Amino acid sequence: MYSGKDTTARTGKKSEKIVLRLMRPYLLKGHQLYMDNYYNSVTLSQKLVDLKTHTTGTLRSNRKDNPKDIIKKKLKKNQHVWVRKNKVYVSKWVDKRPVLMVTTSVHPRLIEIQNRFQQRKIKPAEVAEYNQRMSGVDRADQMISYYSSPRKSIRWYKKVMFHLLDVAVWNSFFIFKKYCQANCDFLLFREELIRRLLDLPADLTAEQVILARSKYDNRIRANLLPLPVSTIDDDVGSSRVHGHWPEKIPVQEGSNKTSKYLKCKMCTKKKVRRETCLRCKGCPEKPALCALCFEEWHKEV
Asked: Per the count of CB atoms within 10 A, which of 126, 220, 243, 252 is most buried?
């Protein structure tokens, strides 16, 4: 869909255009922008500082516009070097591993800071500035990644929805920790939230929930292939239901997946969301049907 001519940045990488487009209302106002290494580059920092917008953030070592002498420089732990290109500073510092930074607002230099354990440490000023401003964002991304809901097998829009759900859960936990004094970690908070949403007994442990679900799944698998529909109801004509056996939905040729899942037709009619890897072999349209709906579907058809 055409959405108008892009006049902010006619050239440059897609990530740069995203930043420039989102920052359009805030340019030329002296704002400070903090970014991670996915978006940052020397070229983008130069464009933004020309628009009176300063930047600070981490930098990927494979960016084409990086100063080569900094990238190739071999440093020992706690060593710090920097170089200036026009109005942009690029620095390299070794902590547990090399860290590349790009900034237009902080002059690279080593400063003494106090960490959360009340210990005095030497750290570059640009790194300290970035950590102070971005630590909450990085911490949230880190914690969400530990208990991520999306799976590789689901479609992209479902991944987006589940990621937004994970972010909402983390934001809820952040607010909970801010206003409640209860000693509760993120995992325990998620488990309790799930328990409340599902209205589960308070004394039911996570292991018991998993065990109960496992037993339920085993019962379903034991009856995964139901009897042919010709034995379901004597009132249904045998010629009409002959050969209606369930079969596995074939996987597309060349795919590395072992199973293909579609929405169950019967569940969809009931406005219930359930996917299945089975379909009816005898029906002309070969509808996808879960094991629980196979009999009911053919009684209605």
From this structure: 126
In Å, how far are 13, 77, 248, 252, 284 from 262, measured between CA atoms?
38, 54, 11, 13, 17
CA–CA dist 166, 194 (Å, integer) = 12
Q: Name the one residue in this structure whose structure tokens are 């590349």.
A: 100
Tell me the chain's radius of gyration from C-alpha atoms: 29
DSSP for 109-177 reads -EEEEE-TTS-EEEEEHHHHHHHHHHHHHHHHHHHHHHT----TTS-HHHHHHHHHHHHHHHHHHHHHH
Domain ranges of the chain: 14-134, 147-207, 222-251+260-300
Residue 18 is encoded by which pair of tokens?
Answer: 């995203």
User: What string of pLDDT tens digits covers the 301 residues of the chain?
Assistant: 333 444 444 445 788 899 999 999 999 999 999 998 888 999 999 999 999 999 999 999 999 889 988 888 899 988 999 999 889 999 999 988 999 999 999 999 999 888 777 788 899 999 999 988 887 676 777 777 777 776 666 678 888 888 899 889 989 998 998 888 778 888 888 888 888 887 777 666 656 665 555 554 544 444 444 444 444 444 444 444 556 788 888 888 878 778 888 999 989 988 888 888 888 888 888 999 888 888 888 887 6
Report residue 17: phi and psi, to 5°: -65, -35
Identify the DSSP state of 25.
Answer: G
Q: Please report, in angstroms and rounded to a whole number, the separation of the first and last CA atoms in the chain.
A: 42
Long-range contacts of 144-152 (CB under 8 A, 24+ apart): 144/170, 146/186, 146/187, 147/186, 147/187, 147/190
| The two three-digit tokens of residue 133, written as one number | 């401003």
